[in-house]
Amino acid sequence: MKVYIPDALCSYTGDRRTVAAHGATLAALLLDLDRQFPGIRFRMIDEQDAIRRHMRIFVNGDEARTLNLALADTDDVSIVQALSGG
Amino acid sequence: MAIKKRKTTTTKRPAGRPVALLIATRKGAFILKSDAARRTWKTAGPFFLGQIVHHMVLDPRDGRTLLASTSTGHLGPTMMKSTDLGRSWKEVAKPPAFPKAPEGAQGRSVNHTFWLAPGHASEPGVWFAGTAPQGLFRSADGGNSWEPYSSINDDAQYRKWMGSEKDGTPDGPKLHSIIVDPRDRKHMLFGMSGGGVHESFDAGKSWRVIIDGMEVVEGFNFDAKDPTFHDPHCVRMCPSNPDRLYQQNHCGIYRRDGKGAWVRIGRSMPKQVGDIGFPLVLHPRDDNTAWVFPMDGTRVWPRVSPDGKPAAYMTKNGGKTWQRQDKGLPRAQGWFTVKRQAMCGDTRDPVGLYFGTTGGEVWASRNEGAQWTCIARHLPEIYAIEAAG
C-alpha cells in the first residue's frame, strides 16, 4: 500500500515522500517499513510500541490509535508530525 | 583537611597543538577549531541542523570516532556516529532503549540519551550512556548497538530512588557523570538527578550508594541517608588522582577522598554567590585545582549567574579557598546559564577552559580562567561542550 512519509523522516527513504509497504496490520506495516528503511520505526514508535507523543498516523484520513489496526492493500497510510510546537 | 601535592600521572599535551571544541546545542552541533596558540577559532557546522544534540564526545582511544546523541521535538531519540572526526556521519543501528514491558505492565521509553562516556582504554569499542528517564546502557561495538544495565534500570530499589518523571530536571530526570576509573575498568561511578551517586567495583554487576556527607534540601525533614533526596549535578574523578572525586550538587560543592565521606568544600565560597551550580571542571594534572561556575539557586532557582555578574570560581587547594575569575566577562547584566555539560577544560599547559551559555555564546580562557574571551556567539542554546586535543 501507499505510505506518505513526513519530511523529517525522508532522510531514511532517500528523500521519497511516498513509499510502498505491506502488512496486514499497522504493526506489520511499520515492521516492513523498518526492514526497508532501517531505523525509521524507532523514530515514530517507542520501545513500548506506543506511537510517539508528537507523531500521528492516519489510515484513509482517520487517525490510528493502535498498532493492531487491520489494513487492506488499498489503504492509504499517512505518517505526519503532529501540529505541536510553534 | 590535609591538602598535599600529588604526583602527576597524566601526560602533558605538547604545546602548540590545536584544540577542537565539540559543541552540542538545541538546534544542532558545531565544532570550533583553534589555531595552535588557541587565539583564533573557526566554526564548522552546523551538523544535524534542527536536531537536538544532547552530547557529542570524541573517543580518546582512537582520536577520530565521534558519537552524538540526538533527538528532535517530534521524532524519537537516536545516535549518530562518525569515524572521520565529523566529516561523515551514520546513524547507529540500535540506540539505547528500555526492554519492552510484559503485557499489562508499565514500561519506560527513552526520551533522549543525555550522557555519553567512552569505556576503559583496555576496551576499545566500549561506551556507556545515561538516559532520560534514567537508565544506564553499554555498547560493546563502538556505539552501534546498546544493551541496558538491568542491575540499575530494572532494580526495584533503584527505580524507587529515581522517583517519577517529576523527580528530576525540568526536561526529565537524567542519569549522568558515568565515570570509568582509568586504573581499573571494573571500577565505575555514575550520578542520578535525582537519586544520588553510585559506585561499582565489578563492572556494573553490583552497585553501592556513596552519599555519606552529602546534604539535602533544608527544612523538609528529608532523610539524608535516602538517595531519593540527593541530586548530584556533576561528578568528576581527578585524572591525576582517581581516588579523589569532586561533585557539584544541588546542595553545594563536595570533595571525596578514597572511601571517605563527601566534604562540602563549597562552604568556603562567598556567601553572596553560594555554592550552587551545574558544571565542574578538574585540572588534568593537579588534583587540588578545580573550577565551578555558580548559578543562582535561591527561591525559584533562576539558574543564572548570581546578580547578573558571571564568574568562574577556582580552587587551588582542594576547596579550602576559592578565587573569583571574571576578567573579560560582563561586569553587569550578564544573566548566563551554563548547563552541567557545558563547561570543560583541555589538557594543555596552561589549561584552557571553555564554557557555553544557553544564550549561544562560547567563552574561552587560555590561562586557567585568569582572562576570558568570547570566541563564538549567536549559536543555539548550548547543551554541552567537550574539548578534544
Strand tally of chain A is: 5
Q: Supply the CATH architecture of chain A.
A: Roll
Roughly what fraction of the amino acids of chain B lie in strands?
Answer: 35-45%
CATH topology of chain A: Ubiquitin-like (UB roll)
Would you kindly provide a written description of the structure presented here, covering whatever features stand out?
The complex is a heterodimer of chains A (86) and B (389). Helices cover 19% and strands 22% of the residues of chain A. Chain A has 86 residues and is of the alpha+beta class. Chain A has a single domain (2-81), classed as Beta-grasp domain (Ubiquitin-like (UB roll), Roll). In chain A, strands 2-1-5-3-4 form a five-stranded mixed β-sheet, with no helix packed on it. In chain A, β3 and β4 form a beta hairpin. Helix content of chain B is 3%, strand content 37%. Chain B has helices at residues 150-153, 156-162, and strands at 20-25, 28-34, 41-47, 52-58, 66-71, 78-82, 90-91, 112-118, 127-132, 135-139, 147-148, 174-180, 188-193, 196-200, 208-209, 232-238, 241-249, 252-257, 263-264, 277-282, 290-294, 312-315, 323-325, 343-345, 353-356, 362-365, 373-376, 382-388. Chain B has a four-stranded antiparallel β-sheet with strand order 3-2-1-28, with no helix packed on it. In chain B, strands 4-5-6-7 form a four-stranded antiparallel β-sheet, with no helix packed on it. Chain B starts with 19 loop residues before the first strand and ends with a strand. Classes of the chains: A alpha+beta (86), B mainly beta (389). Chain A binds chain B through residues 8-9, 38-39, 42-50, 52, 54-55, 81-82, 84-85, and chain B through 72-76, 78, 91, 93, 95, 97-101, 107-110.
